[in-house]
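The authors assume throughout that readers already know how a fold can be written as discrete tokens. For illustration, here is how one protein appears when written out as sequence plus structure tokens:
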Amino acid sequence: MEIAAINGGMPVRNETIYYGRQWIDEDDIKAVGDVLKSNYITCGPKVKELEQYLADLTGARYAVAVSNGTAALHCACIAAGIGPGDEVITTPLTFAASANCVLYCGGTPVFADVDPETYNIDPISIEAHITEKTKAVIAVDFTGQAVKIREIRDICTRHKLIFIEDAAHSIGTEYDGQPVGSLADLTCFSFHPVKTVTSGEGGAVTTSDKELYKKLLLAHTHGITHDEEEMDEAPHEGDWYYEQIGLGYNYRLTDFQAALLLSQLSKLKQFRERRKEIVNRYNTAFDSIPELILQKEIPESDTCRHLYIIRLDLTKLTCTRRQFFDAMSAENIQCQVHYVPVYWFPYYHHLGYKKGLCPNAEKIYEGIMSIPLYPKLTDLDVEDVIHAVTKIVENYSQ
């Protein structure tokens, strides 16, 4: 048995691999540089070009580019009409923004439990949490796997709820052959550097509903419009004229960020295929290791995985999750944990949420760990990750 580096052995590699990383090439740099040399670095033509590209890519009628994924969620909640007294059902196994966006609008997040095998929100739990106050469902494509769209859509239709898909992880994923982005009433994307494609910071909301689209436009740009049809009866005084007809925010994306994202999106197919190759290699390596539990996928989801999660069966190991995490770091494989259940945070405790709300999510959290997954990983890098995981499992196996 190889001795773990944390116990004095040799690490599997000398240079650290991190759990996620962007891949910026010369085409990306040129695309940004061209915009920086142009007449517009913000509020220019590249954002419109990006929005049309995203609409075409996803099959949605409309896309609105925004400054980040959290802004996308906030705008979606505004468009959905979330306000004080409204409840919105979401998952606790997500980044805090998926619930915070409801609070921004004065609504109340309600946490439904997750499926113990897929880790995505469970439609049965969604239905169990619906009340007369429920206004919407925010379903998160955790790790990139599409949620059970058909079942959630049916629930939302029967109960007259707005279906918001948090697709921060799932650009490039398809459900029943259709791209994520055209399946819910509103779909929110994030383009943070560890995501499949990046604009540095950035996000977008897609929809096929014209009225929701109009609300998104107002929400992301101060509630201001240049559209005469949206204005009051005051005379239109010239091309310069605009009116604020609602309360919105400055959530605009710059043109140079849009240019970077357009360049990145041109490589989405390449990035998607490489991620799938790595996921398949991990699945093959880990499937027969009894100390590890692998996330299951529904057959409808052709997944472009943003995260690869191993789940430790701590009943078969002599270590804690923290000890396993630290042992991986000592092998120069830097992992991460996604996510602490949202309602565990002190802020949510102050709001009255308590532990124990979602037993499946809490049980899953105890053992999960995200290992490196991004297209720039070489085959040797992938083998080093596998080597480290199997090495640590062997050192701590009962």
